[in-house]
Amino acid sequence: MPRALKCDRVLCATILALVFVGLIMVFSATTGRADGTLKFGVKQMAAALVGIAAMRVLMYVDYRRFRKPKMIILALGSVVALLGMVLLGSETAGTLRFLRLWIFSIQPSELAKLALVLFLAFFLEKRAHRLHEWRTLAAAGFMLACLCGLIFAGRDLGTPISLLVIAGVVLWTAGLKFRYFIAAGVLAAILITVAIHVEPFRKNRWAAFMDPDLDPQGIGYQIRQSQITVGSGGLFGQGLMNGKQKMKFLPAAHTDFIFALICEEFGLLGGSLIVLAFGVLLWRGVWIALRAPDRFGFYLATGITAMIVCQAMMNLGVVLALLPTKGMPLPFISYGGTSMVTCLTASGILLNVSQRAS
Q: What is 119-134 written as a DSSP string?
């Protein structure tokens, strides 16, 4: 008698809980804004519903259907085309990240993360026994460079770094020798250093990271306000909707710095629960990957787990002044439709792999 397929309920419950917290906190963060609380809440709710619907569908679509070459080509081709279209659009906050479509916008760089995971899972399964051949490394490196280059051309450095981290995690689990990581790390460090120094706003962010008190009313303002917001919550916080820093003190309170608001309104306890939730997500993701029935499922589960958890770690690092400001949303929680839909779509694939885990 065949085994009944059941998804990982702990993982599913954790994801839905994070989405629920995100909806509540976006509403709280936008309270009192002149441009209207309802607009942000409605858009985030719509994105959550679309994402949950996609997750629900993909939970019951065999993940092995994505290993077809035409599916990979379609995903990569669509993302590359969208990234190219973004470069022809208008700037938002000094960067070219968003593609405006009628009443909403999409951020193709978020889609690039999932497309990269699908490509690496497909490609590394096919080349599992030829991982260290130059053709394998060249092809993987070329695709990674194309995605990173197009995103970097839009003056976004944080997302290319996250793509490098995702690729590094997947290649490490595939068994790539350590010397390649050393060479890639040195090259990446050189390129990132150059990228920081060629853009004044990146130099300012780095200077603020090294010394937030250097210019507390200028380049260090956001980091200092984030630290104040986190610290003002104490152990149990000031209560939902009672945060003060969101009232024109903390920039991007509903997007990149929403974790600081969580700490202010729910204190150390609330912030710790969010960190614990991503820890659970990491645990279940690793568990699913190790028990996947094939290499494709293993790489897919590894890449999706790395995509979500690494992005969360980078966001928390920025909010807590452990990393320079990058403009990275907190998965499932920060305001942003593309990030929400992409993370929930990826989660649906991960939950599908869990149904077939041994």
A: HHHHHHHHTGGGTTSH
